[in-house]
Fold PepSY domain-containing protein.
Amino acid sequence: MYPLKTLVVIALALLPAMPVAAGDDHAQQTARRAVEQGRYVPLEDVVRDAMRRHPGTLLEVELDDAVYEVEILRADGVVVELDYDARNGKLLKTELDD
């Protein structure tokens, strides 16, 4: 399963949209609304697929121009970046860094 820190990061990313508070990131609010409106697939679905394909430690998840970028450190020390289309959840590309 995921380490506790990872679960907290995922849970925070999946929170329903709330009124923007001081210091809240506008990009996060926009992404949350897109998921709620069905324009983007939930981050949880993408992370689950990435971890199934490349088990390891989740390092980072970013959303950039409707692309979820997921970085995983595998047990063999290789960092894998998987890019998913945020609109439909399809895997676009996979890059390996030693």
User: Anything to note?
Assistant: Helices lie at 4-13, 26-36, 43-53.
